[in-house]
Amino acid sequence: MQVSIACTEQNLRSRSSEDRLCGPRPGPGGGNGGPVGGGHGNPPGGGGSVPKARAALVPRPPAPAGALRESTGRGTGMKYRNLGKSGLRVSCLGLGTWVTFGSQISDETAEDVLTVAYEHGVNLFDTAEVYAAGKAERTLGNILKSKGWRRSSYVVTTKIFWGGQAETERGLSRKHIIEGLQGSLERLQLGYVDIVFANRSDPNSPMEEIVRAMTYVIDQGLALYWGTSRWGAAEIMEAYSMARQFNLIPPVCEQAEHRLFQREKVQVQLPELYHKIGVGSVTLSPLACGLITSKYDGRVPDTCRAIKGYQWLKDKAQSEDGKKQQAKVMDLLPIAHQLGCTVAQLAIAWCLRTEGVSSVLLGVSSAEQLIEHLGAIQVLSQLTPQTVTEIDGLLGNKPHSKK
């Protein structure tokens, strides 16, 4: 499928490099910005009011083209990046809730994990309506409510697609996007989420319907941005072009799996979209649900957290390819020892250095494990081109651009 990007290139040429990096500046009343005040309720200015005239922009020195401006949090060492080329700043490491919240860990442990994450500068918390049949959202919402943190100080994302057993409770119809998000907000006990993801593409729903529904929930103040998850590059481009054609809101990021053994999409396809239309990447499963750690010495026991209740993961890990990958994980041990880190920290840092990646989502079963994984930020600065080349040589799977 060929999609015209003439309007995209003209749009990008007409804006300075810093405008392309940070996205449109909010005009009076909020515009594309996030909430101004704190609280646990609705975002100020939400509800689809008529936009006011945009104020004149004051020229500022241009930033390097294509760069993700990175800053470091005071006292935590956490690094923050723009979500794609939007103005939203997210921690380079986020906390995911798949497999863990409402399922494999207790609510008390989940609270410990979330508290440690927040205190260490993590501001991105990701969940989905399908995780633990809604229990993950309930657990996250209960913790956020009990903590009383300022709503403006963190970012909550959820994903919509699989909401129930009825035919109308799944997919990306206008009905399910709106009702599914309302259900998520009820479970989260929030007035809005910062980002709502379409949790896979839906061939049964027209793209225009999907983009119009996402624009509607943003206009109504139920979400501030929308993104895609597990979409193909052509589908993302179609959504963007549809938004531009009908003056709707385009997606700002794609959520995709990315790790040492799954590289093609995030390293080849998404950087092109990042430069052309500003779509960033939020990546998940950097450790393949705990399989990329070296602690199993090439063998994956049934006690592994990733295996419990997920037979397909067990089958994949014990396949011929899975065994070869485990052997390569062990080959990374000398590099990790040389850098003074664990293989898990090395694998996460390796994900963080990929172009266009705004944040890498971590899935952990304890606060201690989270603290270890957060140490990947210190490893990131040690990944020299020579070290990366050595890793690529061991893996033997570096993708090549098709240009």
UniProtKB/TrEMBL annotation:
Gene behind this protein: KCNAB3
MF GO annotations: oxidoreductase activity; potassium channel regulator activity; transmembrane transporter binding; voltage-gated potassium channel activity
Lineage: superkingdom: Eukaryota
Keyword entries, A-Z: Cytoplasm, Ion channel, Ion transport, NADP, Oxidoreductase, Potassium, Potassium transport, Transport
Xref: InterPro entries: K_chnl_volt-dep_bsu_KCNAB, K_chnl_volt-dep_bsu_KCNAB-rel, K_chnl_volt-dep_bsu_KCNAB3, NAD(P)_OxRdtase_dom_sf, NADP_OxRdtase_dom
Region named Disordered: 1-77
Cell compartment(s), UniProt: Cell membrane; Cytoplasm
Gly residues composition bias: residue spans: 28-49
Biological process (GO), any one: regulation of potassium ion transmembrane transport
Residue span(s) of domain NADP-dependent oxidoreductase: 93-394
UniProt similarity note: Belongs to the shaker potassium channel beta subunit family.
Membrane topology reported for the UniProt record: Peripheral membrane protein
Name of the protein in question: Voltage-gated potassium channel subunit beta-3 isoform X1
GO terms for cellular component: cytoplasm; voltage-gated potassium channel complex
Pfam families recorded: Aldo_ket_red
NCBIfam families: Kv_beta
Biased composition (Polar residues): 1-14
